[in-house]
Every structure is written in C-alpha cells, then in structure tokens.
Design goal:
Blueprint: H1 5-8, H2 16-20, H3 33-36, H4 38-44, H5 63-67, H6 74-88, H7 93-98, H8 101-108, H9 112-119, H10 122-132, H11 148-151, E1 170-174, H12 176-182, H13 184-196, E2 200-202, H14 211-215, H15 219-238, E3 243-245, H16 248-260, H17 267-275, E4 276-278, H18 279-285, H19 288-293, E5 301-306, H20 309-314, H21 319-324, E6 330-334, H22 353-370, E7 374-377, H23 380-390, E8 394-395, H24 397-404
Length: 408
C-alpha cells in the first residue's frame, strides 16, 4: 500500500488540482482535492486522526492527479483517505449493495424481466429512495436474461491455450460486469470485431474489477477481488496473451489501481498491468496494420464524443477518436467537459445526485446545442448518465465502428 506522505512533500499548494476539480467547482461541500488530500495527509500520518468528512464528496474522477504539475498522487491519496474514513465511521447497506454489480447481475439474470420491470416502477424507486437513499430518478442498468459468458461458453477457458496456438493472434477478453450481465450484446460486438481483425478471442476466469468497492471506500474487499483477478489473468499474460477490455474503468483498475491504490505491488500485478489494453488502444497500437486495411462504410451522422475520466487517466490519448475519424460521413464534436458527473456509483446516491448533475451540466448543454444525432462514450455509467440527461441515444464507440465495418 502506498503511503501518501511519500508524495505530499511535493505538493506546493498551488491549487491547480482544486481549480480543475469538477466537484469543487459546483459545491462548497467539498473543500477540494488539495485540502482533503495532500494537505490533510501531512497530519494523518503517522497518528492518523479521522479524515475530513468533506472527503466523502470526492467523486474519484482522477482529474486532480492528471493536472498536478509535480506528480503528486492526489486522487490516490484521497481514495485511501476515504477508505480510512469508512473504516473509522459508519458504512451503509446501500454502498455495500451498489458496489457489487457482479452479485446483483448474477442474482437478477434468472429473473431479468421481473427485476427490470420492478426497478423501473415508481413504487420501487420510491422505496429505494426511502430505505437506501438511492436517487429515484437516477439511471439504473437493465439486467440481461443471459450473461455473456453463457452465450459465449465455448470461448470460456480456465487456463491459457496450448503454446502451439500463436500467442500474437490470441486475445483474453476482460468483459467486466457490464458486458457480462447488463450489456452482453456489446461484448459480442467487441469479440466479433477482434475476430474479423484476425484475433482468436478467449474469455479467461474473472471477477468484477472491484472499482465500485474501491470508490465506496471498501478497499479490503476490493483487494480480494483484485487478487483473484491477478491470479487468474497472470498465466495468460505470462504466455504473452494481451488482456483487452471495453470498459475504461475496468482496464484502468488492472493497469493502475490494483498496484497504486490497493498496494498490490508484485511481479504478477506488474505483468497483468503491462499486458492490459483498452479496446481502442489495442486496435490502434497492436492491430494498426489490420485497421489500415479496412474500408469503412459511410455513416452520415453528427455525433459528440465524450472521453471518460478513466480513459484520460490511462494516459493514452483518445484512440477511439483516431478510428472514428476515419469513418466517411461521420462528423464528430469533442466534448468540452472533463467529466460527465456520474463517477460510477456516485451519481445514483441521493445526496450526491444534484452535484453529479451539476458537474455534467455543460456536457448536456453542449450535446443539445450541437444538435448531434447521438453521443459516444467508452464508459457504461457515462453512457447511461448522459442518455438520462440529454434524451439522446448514447453508444460505445465500438458500436459505430461495428456498423462501419458492416457487422451490424
């Protein structure tokens, strides 16, 4: 586990992180990432007095770490401090429930139709608001009746394939909870695109990436999830098989959070980190030659692309944009907002929902002002949130690429 005091001395109190913080700009409840992070950390260690309650308003978007001119791990410090606050105080049943999308998906899938109908009803949403403080109008995902792993059972493998199968043509798909239980069609499209680009796609054993647990300060459980994923994925990485995911938050967990936030610093975690790629990062860097061969079908439409906060934290630029710009007829507007506001589970909490909306307000206004046909974003929670507040269709970029490849 990293010790924030190792980097806090590099903080010059320039307040650039506070100026860039989307939450601090819309509410006075949050003192800002510098005040609750590096500044407060100097007093937390070694005595560790209770963390500042204002810290609970941090959405964990990571922008503060991105803009710090001295490389202070501001967001990571705040996440660990938030966990300390949870450990010392009261935990809520709501936070434990919304942090486990894998469990919820597994339980609800067999009765998906009933579960979806129930969760969309006003009485149920009112009850969730009264008992669990879940915002009654927040967008909730719908459960699929059949998981991705069940639909692609032949591709599920427990161990890496025989070395005789060329490793440079095999991809381990990290589907995450969303593609497995909520958006399996998206996972199938991702697999189909990779296969059309000459890859043999397999589904290794995996759990939820653990980010929702981490975001809610439940680091002990998040660490167990992470350790399980590392132990399952490391053998594939050791064979030189890349791990590719379509959720930027999942892949950021594998690349960064397991080691830096959860403190799982070892050879296996480092190997998994270096072997993990965002879907479009993999297409533009590892399969660039295959992409160059494609003759995209024209798509006459106007769209806005919103790169999620987690994608920005990858430090890889906007690889989806690179490919989308090659589609004839597709006119693209780049989002002017750093964050859509939802921040995973943050925006569905009753007390945080207005702040989450205010953070994303400029994005919603830009989408309406631009009169685009649809919006694109790589993050599932961003898509659901943006769709709720704009009324526009919101797609993963790979859906548009699949259409241009004449897959759908």
């Amino acid at each position: 586990m990293i010790r924030p005091n190792l980097t806090t001395d590099q903080c010059l109190k320039c307040n650039i992180c506070t100026s860039a913080c989307p939450v601090a700009s819309v509410t006075d409840n949050f003192l800002g990432p510098k005040a609750v992070g590096p500044q407060a950390a100097r007093y937390r260690y070694p005595h560790q007095p209770p963390s500042i309650p204002s810290l609970t308003w941090c959405s964990g978007c990571g922008i503060c770490s991105l803009v710090c001119p001295h490389g202070v791990a501001v967001a990571e410090i705040n996440i660990q401090a938030k966990a300390d606050l949870v450990n010392r105080g009261k935990t809520y049943l709501r936070d434990h429930l919304i942090s486990r999308p894998e469990l919820l998906g597994r339980l609800a899938s067999p009765v998906a139709s009933l579960a979806n109908k129930s969760l969309s009803s006003r009485p149920t949403r009112w009850l969730l608001g009264k008992t669990l403080a879940i915002n009654s109008s927040a967008p909730l995902p719908t459960f699929a009746s059949q998981s991705l792993r069940n639909r692609l059972r032949s591709k599920c493998v427990a161990t890496p394939p025989d070395p005789g199968l060329s490793a440079d043509q095999t991809v381990a798909f990290f589907h995450g909870c969303s593609s497995n239980y909520y958006e399996p069609e998206l996972g199938i499209l991702a697999v189909t695109i990779l296969e059309q680009l000459g890859q043999n796609v397999i589904l290794p054993p995996q759990k939820c990436c653990g980010l929702p647990l981490q975001s809610n300060g439940l680091l002990k459980t998040a660490r167990r999830y992470a350790q399980a994923n590392i132990s399952w994925l490391a053998p594939f990485a050791r064979r030189g098989i890349p791990i590719v995911g379509i959720s930027t938050s999942c892949t950021l967990s594998l690349k960064h959070d397991y080691r830096i936030v959860l403190g799982l610093q070892n050879d296996e975690s480092n190997l998994v980190s270096s072997s993990t790629f965002d879907f479009f990062e993999f297409l533009t860097h590892q399969l660039a030659h295959e992409i160059d061969k494609l003759d995209f079908k024209p798509l006459i439409a106007e769209a806005m692309y919103h790169p999620p906060c987690q994608l920005r934290s990858h430090g890889i630029g906007f690889p989806a944009l690179t490919i989308l710009q090659r589609i004839p007829g597709l006119q693209l507007h780049l989002s002017e907002s750093e964050c859509c506001g939802i921040a995973g589970t943050y925006g569905i909490k009753q007390e945080k929902s207005q702040v989450a909306y205010d953070v994303g307000k400029t994005l919603f206004e830009q989408a309406r002002r631009s009169e685009v046909d649809f919006v694109l974003s790589d993050s599932e929670t961003c898509r659901w949130w943006i769709s709720k507040h704009t009324g526009l269709p919101v797609y993963h970029p790979l859906e548009i690429v699949a259409k241009a490849m004449d897959i759908v």
